[in-house]
Design a protein that fits this description.
globular, alpha+beta
Length: 557
């Protein structure tokens, strides 16, 4: 018998006998009596080896995170850090058999990092892993967050107050943490208590970065995405593009909207809640739309990714109401704020060091087709954009907008439109587009760029009159991209609005001008050790397989 076959037979035999190879593994009470095969697995945290293929963590990560190697349940529940322990928390008991403590099957999300603050969000659930359910049922309880400078939480910086999670708020808990240090990586975790606060569960360590100090020339890298459809995900794990992003490196992610789809094939989620029409009672519409957020962020890839990187969420038509939504939606606005770590005022700006300032616009709540001229942003937001952009002393200025401003050139010929235009490159919003560009040009705004979502393919175009560049990130998955069959004629520009710089032809797609697989936009600022005159900003368009399809570099002027 050769050695390979010998080891194969041995492993099978050990599996049949229930060999307890990792007998000294760090296991919770639920798993400590289980038996595991003695094969090699892969740690979900560090990628190193585990002593059994059935184990999710290696010993080192288990000890570091204080989690069971098998099910990842906390090994330190109900034991608050000495610096924050109160009489009430000291009396709590760890969650165990017959537990009444909720899970957090959708993980956590961190949003809106500034130099000194962050918004944290979780949702209490009745199941540990929501992606195996038809929906992710919620569960009553209490939750709060701990923020620390180390993953062991020996140096806890902040602890939020207990907040109640109930059906009224979809069992979500969203809390802001202030008083943080700029340009620093922090760790956070959730503490969950049962309705009577007698038992607790402690979540794993998550992390985020705060923005660089406004007076520091530093490097920054971030990702821009759109088109995250549940029905167009790569597989049951989620969207593989997130795995590529991690390999490339990023400080945060900007989501331009359409991150769930209430309508269309991309919005199919495994929910038993029927899809109500717009005339149905509000409760029915809310229940259906909430199920989309539950399913999307319970996907394993999404749950892990957003536990590592903070984001800035914007809303677009599909995650607001429906395709080309042109009227104010009270439900859409409420759910967007409820399900994401966003501020109440959804147009805002943030500084990431001396070299970069970013603006995030609101493209749905202030639309007015009856105004003269028609507006997407509304007067207050329009005036704020012009004033704040023109007054900024950042080396590079980037507007992240849910929909196109400069446009790709094809908007006015898109025969698939069933209603009024949906972006500034289409009627009836062309007047607001021109007024915006003209105002910035008149104020001599330089080094200004636009990053947009919405379109299902990636492009780089330049406004002919002002020379401002726009980059579209394309859809997040190959199933969701351009439509194939030449649907998007990217080289046409019937209105003469733009110079089209990329793509200039077929990029591996199904039809002429179709850019092939989905992907994302990565923006990199090179400023460490540089001055305003030699800092660079780089725009990179990636496919979901990690292939860089296009790159454009601009040196400050």
């Amino acid at each position: 018998m050769n050695m390979n076959r010998f080891w194969a037979v041995l492993c099978v035999g050990l599996a049949i006998l229930g060999f307890t190879g990792p007998a000294r593994a760090e296991l919770c009470g639920k798993c400590k009596d289980m038996m595991f095969t003695a094969d090699i697995g892969r740690c979900a945290e560090c990628g190193g080896g585990t002593s059994s293929g059935a184990l999710k963590l290696c010993k080192a990560c288990s000890a570091k995170l204080k989690q069971c190697e098998h099910c990842r349940a906390s090994l330190a529940v109900g034991v608050p850090a000495a610096s924050t322990q109160s009489a009430a928390s000291a009396a709590t008991q760890p969650a165990g058999a017959g537990e009444t403590v909720a899970w957090h099957g959708q993980g956590e999300k961190a949003g809106e990092p500034t130099q000194d603050s962050i918004i944290l969000l979780t949702r209490l659930t009745a199941v540990e892993k929501g992606e195996v359910e038809c929906d992710v049922p919620g569960k009553d309880g209490w939750a709060r967050f701990e923020v620390a400078e180390d993953s062991d939480f020996k140096n806890i910086t902040a602890t939020t107050e207990w907040a109640k999670a109930s059906a009224e708020n979809d069992y979500t808990v969203k809390q802001a943490v202030k008083g943080l240090k700029a340009g620093k990586e922090y760790f956070y975790r959730v503490r969950i208590a049962d309705p009577e606060k007698k038992k607790e569960r402690v979540g794993p360590a998550r992390r985020f970065k705060t923005a660089l100090p406004a007076d520091r020339m530093g490097d920054v890298a971030f990702i821009v995405i759109t088109g995250q459809g549940y029905g167009s995900k790569d597989d049951e794990q989620g969207h593989h593009a997130y795995l590529i992003m991690e390999k490339l490196g990023l400080d945060f992610i900007a989501l331009t909207g359409d991150t769930v789809y209430y309508d269309g094939a991309a919005g199919k989620v495994p929910t038993k809640v029927p899809n109500p029409d717009g005339k149905a009672p509000a409760a029915e519409q809310i229940a259906y739309k909430r199920a989309h957020w539950h399913s999307m962020y319970a996907l394993p890839i999404q749950r892990e990714f957003f536990g590592k990187y903070a984001g800035y969420w914007e809303v677009d038509d599909h995650d607001y109401e429906r395709d080309n939504a042109a009227r104010y939606s009270k439900i859409g606005s409420m759910l967007f704020r409820e399900q994401n770590p966003v501020p109440d005022k959804t147009y805002r700006t943030v500084r990431w060091g001396k070299a970069l300032q970013i603006w995030f616009a609101e493209g749905r709540e202030f639309r007015n087709l009856d105004a003269k001229p028609a507006t997407i942003w509304g007067k207050e937001q329009f005036d704020w954009l012009i004033k704040s952009i023109s007054e900024s002393d950042a080396t590079f200025k980037v507007l992240v907008n849910p929909t196109a401003l400069a446009g790709s050139g094809d908007e006015l010929e898109n025969k698939n439109k069933t209603g009024p235009g949906d972006c500034h490159a289409e009627k009836p919003f062309l007047e607001e587009r021109k007024a915006f560009f003209d105002a910035l040009k008149a104020k001599n705004v330089k080094n200004f760029f636009i990053a947009v979502g919405d379109d299902h393919w990636k492009y780089h175009s330049r406004d002919k009159e002002t020379g401002y560049d726009e980059f579209c990130c394309g859809a997040l998955s190959g199933k969701h991209h351009g439509g194939g069959g030449g649907r998007w004629e990217v080289t046409k520009d019937p209105a003469g609005l733009v110079d089209f710089l990329h793509p200039k032809g077929d990029e591996g797609g199904k039809g002429k001008g179709d850019p092939g697989p989905g992907g994302f936009l990565r923006i990199v600022v090179k400023a460490e050790g540089r001055t305003n005159s030699d800092a660079e900003i780089i725009f990179q368009l990636y496919a979901t397989d990690g292939k860089k399809q296009y790159e454009y570099t601009h040196r400050a002027k």
